[in-house]
Design goal:
Largest sheet of chain B: 6 strands, mixed
Structural class of chain A: mainly alpha
Distance between the termini of chain A: 33 Å
CATH topology of the domain at 2-233 in chain B: Rossmann fold
Number of helices of chain B: 22
Number of strands of chain B: 20
Oligomer: heterodimer
Largest sheet of chain A: 3 strands, antiparallel
Structural class of chain B: alpha/beta
CATH architecture of the domain at 2-233 in chain B: 3-Layer(aba) Sandwich
Strand order of the largest sheet of chain A: 1-3-2
Number of helices of chain A: 8
CATH superfamily of the domain at 2-233 in chain B: P-loop containing nucleotide triphosphate hydrolases
Helix content of chain B: 25-40%
Largest interface: A-B, 51 and 67 residues
Number of strands of chain A: 3
Strand content of chain A: 5-15%
Number of domains of chain A: 2
Radius of gyration of chain A: 23 Å
Order of helices and strands of chain A: HHHEEEHHHHH
Strand content of chain B: 15-25%
Shape of chain B: globular
Shape of chain A: globular
Strand order of the largest sheet of chain B: 6-7-8-3-9-10
Distance between the termini of chain B: 52 Å
Amino acid sequence: MKPFHPFTFWAIFTSLSVGVVLSDSALCALVALCGAALIVALKKDEGPWRNSFRWSLIAGTFLLAVRAITGAVIGVPRIGRTIFTLPRISLPSWLPGIRIGGDVTIERLTSSLHEGLIIATVIALFGAANSVTSPHKLLRVLPTRIYQLAVTLTIATSVFPQLISSIYRIRSAQFLRSGKRPALTSIAIPLLEESLGRAVNLAESMEARGYGQSKIHSRYRPITYSTQDISWMAVGLLAAIAMVAI
Amino acid sequence: MISFSRVSLIYPHSTTTVIEDLSFEIAEGEMVLVMGRTGSGKSSLLRLMNGLVPHHTGGILGGEIVVDGKSTRTTKPGELAGIVGIVGQNPIDTFIADTVEDELAFGMESLNFPPDVMRKRIEEALDQVGLAPLRNRTISTLSGGEQQRLAIASALVMHPKVLVLDEPTSALDPVASEEILAILHRLVHDLSVTVVLAEHRLERVIGYVDRILLIEGDGNTSIGLPSEILAKTDLVPPIVRLTRALAIDEIGTSTREVRRITEPLREDLVDFPRPSHSPGAIALTVNEISARYEDKSALNKISLTLREGEITALMGRNGAGKSTLIKCIVGLIHAAEGSVEVLGEDLRKIPQSKRSQLIGYIPQEPGDLLYLTTVLAECDRADRDNSVASGTTLRLLHSTLPQISPESHPRDLSEGERLALVLAIVISGSPKILILDEPTRGLDYEAKNRLMATLHSLTRDQGVSVLMATHDVEIVAEVADRTIFLADGEKVADGATIDVLLASPAFAPQVAKVMSPRRWLTVGDVLRAREIS
């Protein structure tokens, strides 16, 4: 298979998340999520960014849980079938309409689950876009005009995976020394020093190699859109339109 | 090509000048070695050459630096990109793209080179460093030597007149380091590129350089031919120490020269029986362990024993499985097959707290263990952690490094001092086994001698068993009783250091190359042979 343009998947997943938000339907969200999972599973990219879909799923699930619990406990009362009743905390009179605790109805639970699911799906879709596109390749197609942003992006994307391996290395070194799980600060300090040093090294290397010298960049083996990219993007867009239409 | 006139450098918030009143000139096509102790300002000096200091780092620059007719005061590093190529200490930190070709194209793209020129130059650079077969590879899958070659190639695509390298061989095994130096040698001779490099392992580079710039650390700096500079400093490679110890006035910088000078010695001296060190009981046994990374075999049925009071060196090319083996021994990973026994007990059955008491581990980056704000605080913490009398760790540290101030910040220490601190912290717990991962990277000779003295007293006086993974053949020749050689996850040699090192020409120490076919590894060996004769 020909390599995709780095923007292709970003376009697909952005249109899907717009579709999910506009349609505001849990079914659409679930379908989009399954689609994203399928694409991530099919597209085997090498590289540390590959895991970002999984991480975004974890983050999304966490958010969903938080949203469901807070939604059920705090908020405007909603009439419906009561599942169970929580003790109610009385609030001062100048906070009318808001309550903590009280009756938890099916309607309230489902509506907060529904909202949580939409948010979690949007997060997961961005995670998926990240997971199938090399950040380095993405940088190569960004316009030179946003030079400063591109520098920041490069440093962020290349430092992050190395950060994970540094954390592992420092943690195991300290674990071996004391036989105990090391405290957060004891990892954070060597880690901070190392990442700062690394970021400075990278920035120096970019500068020494003339980055930002010329307003116009040329492209070695430029990345162009192929019919494959365009058709995939069209599929993404159509899916989004379909979601809104339904 | 490069001219420094009366250059001084001081960093902000610092009271000491890094460089003071330095003047010298480097001609086109010269290869110059910058040497000095750690922390003497070598890296700063190198980065002055393309203006990264002070444009990028800050600092006050006095005097004038002119590179190829351009003053670095008024020219920014980016504008010098086509003149000075710089290769940093850790190439992996400086890569921007994720594949080899993209990385090479990066600098040229920034300077808006037309695509056809880029194609041609990338081909050229790939050929110059021998990376053509790896052009489409992801950078993170390259070995250390390949990454170093890529870093050099990405400087070369800009057709620089000057190539500046900061410790280009320090992370590499002897074979990969030879390859890098051969490339540099070719650049100097065929393309008249001016090469300036800093390196602690003088034995690796000394034969290649035209001149040496010595930073003495007390503000004095001198530049001259290798024979002139080496005559007046303590920072010398083993072959110079050899001629010095033999009271020969002539200074040779290549094996060939010194072989000629020492011809009579090789004929006259008699061999002596090497003092055979009688090792103690078995401290650790590795039984046929195998480990895999995903689908690749990393270790294949390795067995070895470490004995009390013995120093064992673990050698092999980058990626041969040294780190994996160490991780298995300290219990960070559990091998798929086989077992590790410490003092007769299965490692897996020993609780972690007891393991840490038995096995001391010095990581490749000693700084990983440090997080407090003063040396004293780190020492106190070690006393508490290891439940020893207060002041024990500091006393251990001062026994090797008396000049270190307890109030200084661990981050301000040089590599050598930091290693001494971490060693003191770890050995204050009196471990039975001490594991060191690549301890000599970035160390100058002084710090290395200190390390050797510490290891010697640990093993001989306290019966500690030491395992040291390293690329440094010289320290292996000096201290290791036994050497284990790994290749491709398999043990290919295990025996007395002298037998293992002499068996492979690439891994033979400098003195051994000079004295071949006699079986002497170090200056000490030669002196002993002379005494006996």
